[in-house]
Amino acid sequence: MEQPISVTRSNFNDWMVPVFAPANFIPVRGEGSRIWDQENKEYIDFAGGIAVNALGHAHPVAVNALTEQATKLWHVGNGYTNEPVLRLAKQLTENTFADKVFFCNSGAEANEAALKLARKVGLDSGVAGKSGIVAFNNAFHGRTLFTVSAGGQPKYSQDFAPLPNGISHVAYNDLEAAKAVINEQTCAVIVEPIQGEGGVIPADIEFLKGLRALCDEFGALLIFDEVQTGVGRTGSLYAYMNYGVTPDVLTTAKALGGGFPVGAMLTTDKFAPHFSVGTHGTTYGGNPLASAVAGAVFEFINTPEVLEGVKHRHQYFLDALNTLNAEYQVFDEIRGQGLLIGCVLKAEYAGKAKDITTWAGEEGLLALIAGPNVVRFTPSLIIPEQDIDEGIARLKRALAKLAK
Length: 404
Ligand SMILES: *Cc1c(COP(=O)(O)O)cnc(C)c1O
Fold this sequence. Notes:
Layout: H1 10-15, E1 27-31, E2 34-37, E3 42-45, H2 48-51, H3 60-70, H4 83-94, E4 100-104, H5 107-124, E5 132-136, H6 145-150, H7 154-157, E6 167-170, H8 175-181, E7 186-191, E8 194-195, E9 201-202, H9 205-218, E10 221-225, H10 239-243, E11 249-252, E12 263-267, H11 288-301, H12 304-328, E13 331-337, E14 340-345, H13 353-363, E15 365-366, E16 368-369, E17 374-377, H14 385-403
Helix pairs in contact: 3-11, 4-11, 12-14, 13-14
The structure holds pyridoxal-5'-phosphate (PLP).
């Protein structure tokens, strides 16, 4: 057999558009919550591919679903439906508030579909100018022009003006501020039940309840962006279930495919018919390969054992992090739900989150940041306790470097 082309980390700088700054090693293999790089150095994975690898790496359930489907049918295009996508749609609608699903390939696309649906519902309402979208500061909804404009971090959107207009931003968890901008011209409110990229900030229950009431009052769609919080991440299938607040539209991606790219927009029979044949679409959405993997991953996660396991691991993680923090005193607050955990750095260590993840890498641990001051962990939902212990031991060595 021919040797594969030899590549190194420095080739990234040679050949890749420089929108990322990846770590200085290249992962080549993964199993469970461990990864190995080109030098065969082992890492504990507390990053989970940014809340994606819900079953860790190379889980037999996902591998079997993928390889079985790979020998049958990969793609047919949307002129035909397929069995895996219909099964996945049944699973998603039977286990959530939703009646209808639109499939796509990423979180951004799911949110793009949600925002376009809201604009269409607003148009169909007959209320003049019902196109306003209310979103929140520091929110993250993806990188297409519409979703990056809905996101609340101007540094990601300002270079691409002119931006889609009609989007207002107010402070997250500030119901009075939201009340001031939601009116008859509002077609949608889009919100993350826990802001992920923005720093792992859970919504207050009264805030989400208040948004629900305002959307009902003014006939606006309540869109929950559950791209990061969905599919078991918080210990419930979706975070809205923890809050007891039901949206009109929910977007899901990341963990949905367990590592295979897939996204979906969920909605109800009331709103789905505002989209008709030709109003929206995508070539790969609902592709049999992606749907087969997502169906198997979803079935595995949506059991009391796995979901309870996430809650148990949350506590286990928190206990370990608190013990570590008692010794090193680097975090002000440790927050989040389930296995979406954010550690907020004390003021004296402001801006050091990236350094901590770099040092963690040196010690053999993959970890994430959520802004400059928050270290974030989104491991596999089934990470073994001994891997948590080992990862915490490696984190401890990274924190020791910080404390020095
Ligand atoms: C990651 C993320 C997105 C974007 O998903 P992509 O698959 O990267 O397009 C959108 N919303 C939230 C809350 C996310 O965490």
